[in-house]
Structures are given as structure tokens and as C-alpha cells.
Amino acid sequence: MPELLLQAAAGLLSPETLIFLVGGVIIGLVFGVIPGLGGTTALALLLPLTFGMEVMHAFAMAGGIMGAVAMGGSISAILLNAPGTAPSAATCLDGHPMAKQGHAAEAIGAVATASPLGGLFGVLTLLLVLPLARDIVLLFGPPEFFLVAVFGIVTVAMSASSNTLRGLVAGGIGLMLSFVGYDTVHGGVRYAFGSDYLWDGIPLIPALVGLFGMAEMIRLSIEGGTVAADASAVRLQGVASGLRATFRHWKVVIRGSITGTLIGAIPGVGGTVATFIAYSTTRNADRDPDSFGSGRIEGVIAPESANNAKDSGALLPTLAFGIPGSAEMAVFLGILVLHGMQPGPAIFADHEQDIYGLILALTFSAILASIIGLSFVRWLAAITLVKGEILAPIVIAVSLVGVFAMQLRPGDIVLAATLGVLGYLMLRFDYPRLPLVIALILGETAERGFQQSMMISRGEWGIFVHSPTSVVLVVLIVLSFGWSFVPMLRKRLAAGIAGAAS
Amino acid sequence: MSGQANEKREISYLPSVVILLFIVGYLVTGYLTLDETTRLVPLMAAGVTLVLALLDGFTTVRRGQISDEGKTSAVDRSAATATRRRAVLAVSTVAGGVAAIYLVGFLVAMPLYLFASITYLGKQSAKLAVIAALLTMLSIYLVFEVALSYKLFPGVLFS
Questions:
Q1: Spatial CB neighbours of B151, under 8 Å, sequence gap ≥ 6
Q2: Among candidates B52, B110, B143 on the partner chain, residue whose Cβ is nearest the Cβ of A168
Q3: pLDDT at A231 over 60
Q4: Which of A161-165, A459-463, B75-79 has the highest mean pLDDT?
Q5: What's the pLDDT score for residue B6?
Q6: Are residues B30 and B68 located together in one domain of the fold?
């Protein structure tokens, strides 16, 4: 393996391949920054172009895009609260409040460090786990998929807001919305009201752009001012402190990276869930979870570590079984097939060096994206000083074009705007938006897992605790319910002690 | 009962009522239009959400009763009214922009939307609005139409 790895590194570092890698990184950064586009669009657009390329060049470009999109998406998440890519939505939670307080550069510095560290962790794990890939993926059947989905929804709902009940209500509404469209288990169309557009359900990207980006911009246009509440406090020199903070919070990096790699490897669950779960677990493990959402740097580091680590995790089922772990990987699968590489266990024997080249391209691209992204951070942070009255309509306009560009469906524009208004109302009336989004993503996985499990067991609920994996997942769900009451109990205990002392 | 208390109660109760109506509508529609196997999971989720929403409504009512005891001032009332008016205006501008895009497409509707938002809602100068609208549209055109070869939506009237 080390010899092949060295050969792959030598191939990747040749001047010609490096040009493709840098090109991929720049494209990834640009597509990541623009809300609504993202890595899937970039890869889909470039897929036909890679046909004439050498395999290594195509992998360098694809790896460059996948590694850099996360950084680009997080920059717009921090500066505009408009996640450029779906997994970057979790970075909005504390990244944007940091930008509002004038610490945009510090948050971006943390992204630039946590992102490649997470990527590196994911790659190392992938290299170690690759020989065991088949055994790991086979641990997950329908009951486990259902439980992973429930775990994702519950964890995020319990930790997304100080009002747990409203988090759960928002999660329930997200689940209900996820059932709109074609029923993949039994057939038939639900809640489409005769609209062809709703047959495919509620598409994720317009929903994310609406609920996060547009909602925040509507709020900004109502309240006025700049993204950074105090313009004089915007520090463009804070990048180094963001870098240092990431190393100081190394446990958060490791926790986020492990979450990203593990969740990324589960087909169909995807990176968005990984970043939100990384955020939630970090918040729950903290001594002061209520302070999350107000600009804690750990709230940026955790999802960012997961964001890049998840790509390596998602590669596992894509390469080993041809089951893409995410939409991005589904397009990447197309690139593999286009170059005559059939995914499956044999791919590791037939194209081992190319696979290592791809893995290394992912690593280098994350580092390159950080360097390139950081060199522009001062100019990017200045966006937070633009008047909201001017910035908000411009971002809304660009977001609507980006949303339309994804699938060229006018319905996406209407949906993004509708959910933008819904998101603003949720902001105004203090209903968390994250559980709604996470449930919208996981609804289909949860339903399919549940229905298939019921079919397999002929209606026996015991199937959800029949394997060690499912037992572990059930315990995690129960713990995440219990864990959310710990801060409340701590407060009551502290109040009781203070009362007794006085 | 004070004016601000009325304001707070209106703000607090409205979402709970809308959410409950939405869930009940979802349950009724599912029950009437879907067959037994297809509606099982959606109605289970809606049922659980209904219970949670009722609990949320109950706690909101309790919070509202507590806030009724608060004092208010004319300044607070007028600030709340102004914010509500701006919110209606902002949402209407976005809705108008989307309707215009649907009818006449991006290239015509976007500059108009940007100009209207920046001058009417943002109270900025017309000159600044024209510059911002033109630069944004030019960037969008160059990135999407020229560089990425996307065809921007021309609107139902021009397609």
C-alpha cells in the first residue's frame, strides 16, 4: 500500500495534474460560495468535460471540487447566513452570529483549519477501513436506517433551541412535509394536489436556500443595518486566532471528524445530517449548551470537521458497492463509469493506484481550498459591512437564480420564496428551523426503513432491537432524549444550592 | 389589559393556531385522499406532531397569561406596529419579485425587483439602486448565461 500511495502522490503532484486540481479547487470555491449551486451542480456540469481527460486528471478535478465546495459553502454561511451548500447550513448557527459580532475572519480561519483537518482524518480512516468496507456497510439494514434517521431528527430537535418542545414540533412538520410526493415504498402520490412539480417531493436545495438564506435576508431588509451589528467591530485580522482556536479545541475536531466519517459512510443519509449531528453532539457535550447559537467557535469547528470528513466516508459505499453516500457521490459515480471503472469490490484490485490518487486529491484540495480561501478572506469579510438594504435584495436575487439553475424548474423559485417567508416567520416567532430541515431530509429514509422493516418482520416491532447495531442506535436515541434534560437539571440543582446557601 | 400585552398575545398565539390548523388539514386530507398503506407513516407523524403542537399551544397560553401582567408604553406599541408594517412590505416585495420573475423572467424582473427593494423598502437613492441593479444583473448574466451556459428563465409570457 505505501508504494502505491507514493506512486499516486507522484502522479498527483505532476504539474499537469496539479493544474486540474487547482482548477477544481477554484471551481469548487466559486460554486460553494453561491447559494443554491454547490458540488453536485459543479460535478454534474463538468461530468461530460472529463470524458476526454486522463483518469488521474478527472479525479484531480473532481477531488478538487469536492474538497473545496465545503470551504466555499461555509464562507457564505458565515457571512450571509446563506449556506452555499446544504452541509454548510450547520455552520450558519454559530458562524453567522460570529460575523454579526465582527468576528467573521476568525470564524473563516476556524473553517480553514477544521475543514482540512477533518478531511485528513477522514482520509486516514478511509485508508485504514477500506479493507473492511463490506463488513461495515452490511451492518446497516432497514431497521438500522430507520433508527439512524430517528436518531438524527431527535438529536437535532432536542438541541436546536432552548425550547425543546418547539424543536420537536418543527421536526414533526419537517417529517410531514417530507412525505409530500411519490411514495417510494407503496407507489402513489401524496399531498401533491394535482401539481406535477410536487411529484418529486419538496426539493432540498430550494428548501435550504429559502429557510436559511432568504429568511435571513428578509429579516435583514426589515431590521436594516449591516450583517455585522457593529461595523466598527469587524475585525479582518482575526484569521490567526481562528486557526489557533481550532487546535485548542482538538477534541471538537476529532468528535466532528468521527461523526462526519461515520455518517458520511451511511448511504442515503448524507453530509447535511453529519454536520448537524456533529454540531448537536458538541453542543450537548458542552458545559454551557445554551450559549451555542450566539457565536461559539466550537459551533463552527464541529460541523466543519464533519463537512470534509464526510466525503471520505461517502466514498466507501460508492466505491465498494456503487451505492452513493450522497448526491455529490451519485454524480461522481457517473465519472467513474464514464472512465470505465465499475464500482464494486473489484475496483480496489483493478484501479488501486487511481483510487489512492483520488483519496489524495481530496486531501490536497481541502488544504489548497483553505489557502486560496484565506487569501481572499479580508475582502470576503468586508461583505458583512454592506448595508442590509442593498445586500438583502442582491443576495435574494442571486439565490433565486442559483435555485433555478439547479434543475431549471420555475417551481423551485416559488418554493424557495415561500419557504423564505416561512423561515422568517419561524425566526420571528422563535421556532427553530433546523429540525424542520433535518426531518425533511431524513423523512424518506425513515419511512422506507420503517416500512421495509415491518414487511420483513411481518409487523413485529422487535425487529428494531434485533441486532447489536440497532440496540446501540436505540440506546443513543434514548440518551439524546435524556441528555437534553441535563442542562435543565444542572440549572435547577444550582438554583437549589444557591437558595439553600442564602 | 395593556396594549403591549395584546401585541404579545397576538404574536404568541397566531403561530400555534396556524400550526394546529395545518396539522389538522394534513390529517384530514391524508385520511380522505390516501389509501391505508400509503397514509400510515404520514398520519403517524402528523398525530405525534399534533400532540406536541397542542402541548406547545398550552405552554404558549400560559406564557401569554404571564406576559399580560406586564406594563407597556406608547413607544413600544408604535415600534411594534412599524416592524410589522416593514415585515409585510418586505414579504410583499419578495412575493412581487417572484410573481414578476414567473411572468416576465429574470432579465426583466430582477432589475425591477432590485430597484424597487433598494429604493422603496431600503430608502436608498435611486442612483445607487440603478447601479446595484445593473451590476448584479450583469454579474448574473455573465456567470450563468455566458460562463455556465444556463438559459435564465424567460417567464411564461416570453417562453
A1: A408, B145
A2: B52
A3: no
A4: A459-463
A5: 41
A6: yes
- Which residues sit opposite A226 in a β-bridge? A387
Burial class, A320, CB count within 10 angstroms (exposed 0-12 / middle 13-18 / buried 19+): buried
- Put simply, the answer to whether A424 touches B53 (Cβ < 8 Å) is no
ipTM of this complex: 0.87
Query: Of B72, B106, B123, which marks where a domain is finished?
Result: B72
* Residue, of A277 and A80, whose pLDDT is higher: A277
Q: Tell me, yes or no, whether B89 and B55 share the same domain.
A: no
Q: How far is the C-alpha of A307 from the C-alpha of A71, rounded, in Å?
A: 9
Question: B51 and B17 in one domain?
Answer: yes
Q: What is the nearest CA distance from A414 to chain B, expressed in angstroms?
A: 7
**Could B152 and A400 be called an inter-chain contact, meaning their C-beta atoms sit closer than 8 Å?**
no
- Tell me the C-alpha distance between A374 and A109, whole Å: 7
pLDDT for the residue numbered A489: 66
Which H/E stretch holds residue A473?
Answer: helix A468-483
Query: Which of B52, B86, B101 has the CB atom closest to A222's CB atom?
Result: B86
Comparing A128-137, A461-470, A472-481, which segment has the lowest mean pLDDT? A128-137
Chains A & B: contacts with CB separation below 8 Å: 156
Q: Are B66 and B93 found together in one domain?
A: no
Q: Residue B97 is part of which domain span?
A: 83-153+155-159
Number of folded domains in chain B?
Answer: 2
- Within a domain: B10: yes
* Cβ neighbours around A458 below 10 Å, total: 7
My answer on whether B35 and B98 are in the same domain is no
Q: B72, B92, B125 — which closes off a domain?
A: B72
Cβ of A218 within 8 Å of Cβ of B113? The answer is no
- Which chain A residues touch B95 with a CB distance below 8 Å? 417, 421
Residue B2 domain-assigned?
A: yes
Task: Give the tens place of pLDDT for each residue, A175-191.
Answer: 999 999 988 888 888 99
Residue B51 and residue B105 share a domain: no
Q: How many helices (H) and strands (E) does chain B have?
A: 5, 0
Higher pLDDT, A227 or A42: A42
User: Are residues B90 and B142 both part of a single domain?
Assistant: yes
**Closest-CA residue to B129 (of B144, B111, B147):** B111
pLDDT digits (tens, 9 = 90+) for A393-416: 888 888 888 788 777 888 999 999
The answer to whether position B136 is within a domain reads yes
Looking at the fold, whether B63 and B97 belong to one and the same domain comes out as no
Q: What is the pLDDT of residues A137-186, one digit of tens each?
A: 677 788 988 888 888 788 777 766 567 888 889 999 999 999 999 888 88
Q: Average the pLDDT over A230-259 and give the result.
A: 79
Phi, psi of A163 (to 5 degrees): -100, 95
Contact A176/B at CB under 8 A:
yes
Find out whether A437 and A270 touch, Cβ atoms under 8 Å. no
The per-residue pLDDT for A178 is 92
Residues of A in contact with B41 (CB under 8 A): 179, 446-447, 450-451
